[in-house]
Specification:
With 296 residues, the protein is mostly beta strands. It has 2 domains: 133 residues, no CATH class; 112 residues, no CATH class. The protein contains 3 helices and 19 strands. Strands 1-3-2-4-5 form a 5-stranded mixed beta barrel. A hairpin with a 4-residue loop joins strand 9 and strand 10. It starts with 17 loop residues before the first helix and ends with a strand.
């Protein structure tokens, strides 16, 4: 190479034939390609963890803020070429019950009504309200574009946090939901059919000698985030019930006041948080129902 294309001395004339100049340009471009970091060759539109978001939350969202994900901004029918280039969605004010598992972390400062980049999966920095130092996951904070909230289950695994309580900077891994269980006290009930009930509950924490309400823990009422007893799943008022008792049997025939009872007495049970078939967060536990009433 050096003999065919000799170096030019200071003050010397540059080669002016096209073949030499093209070869020099090819060599320069090859060197630049080798030196360029490979990641920079891939734009955001080919990175499935980064999407474009239009901020429709009603407020400006700072860098590393949180938005719930709504509808797509462009469909395949509207703009097929742009649809395949990059995912582009609406960003909304996070709402518990709507955006659980449907949220993103902003990579840019995104004024209200403007467009920016956001992370939907993978590692990212953000602020998290640490409700309990033992919490390993986080999810959206209702009506807040500023931060996530820690909990026992969720879509964001907390890999590192700056402190153990309050609002802290953290590194989280946005990932699919992990169904996990936690301890909760059953505190109330409301009828939900024949021999079935919806249950109120309060998340619990184990102590050296017993149990206590978990500070900042989750709760459910008989109308919102209620839990159901899996043992009652197929109760229908006739025949063998989920507690393995036949309510059409002789004992019940001879003692008409006997009835299946809802779970009572504030027992502490293991509750599972999981996604339903309609992508709603639901709570389930198992407890054998008692039978009570006057005997003849």
């Amino acid at each position: 190479m050096s003999s065919q294309y000799p170096f030019v001395n200071p003050g010397g004339r540059l080669p002016n034939d096209a073949r030499t100049q093209n070869s020099m340009l090819d060599a320069a471009r090859a060197h630049e390609a080798r030196a360029r970091p490979q990641a920079s060759l891939v734009s955001d539109r080919y990175n499935s963890s980064i999407i474009k978001v239009k901020n429709n939350s009603g407020t400006d969202v700072t860098r590393f803020g949180v938005m719930g994900l709504g509808d797509v901004q462009m469909t395949h029918a509207d703009a097929p070429e742009q649809f395949f280039e990059q995912v582009y969605m609406d960003g909304e004010e996070p709402a518990v019950g709507t955006h659980d598992g449907r949220f993103c972390i902003a990579l840019d400062f995104i004024p209200d009504g403007e467009i920016g980049r956001a992370v939907v999966t993978g590692l990212v920095q953000c602020q998290v309200t640490i409700n309990d130092d033992a919490h390993e996951y986080a999810t959206i904070t209702d009506a807040s574009v500023a931060k996530l909230s820690s909990q026992g289950t969720g879509y964001a695994r907390i890999l590192w946090k700056a402190g153990t309580t309050g609002d802290q900077w953290a590194i989280v891994h946005l990932e699919p939901f992990h169904a996990e269980s936690f301890w909760a006290k059953i505190t109330g009930n409301a009828a939900d059919g024949t021999n079935k009930w919806k249950y109120a509950w309060t998340e619990q924490q184990r102590t050296a000698t017993g149990w206590q309400d978990l500070s900042g823990g989750r709760t459910g009422t008989t109308t919102t985030d209620f839990a159901v007893n899996a043992n009652e799943a197929n109760n229908d008022g006739t025949g063998v019930q989920g507690n393995s008792i036949d309510i059409d049997g002789t004992v019940f025939d001879d003692n008409s006041d006997l009835e299946i009872q809802p779970v009572q007495g504030d027992p502490v049970v293991r509750v599972w948080a999981e996604m339903s078939s309609t992508s709603t967060l639901v709570y389930t536990f198992e407890y054998v129902n008692a039978v009570d009433g006057e005997c003849a």
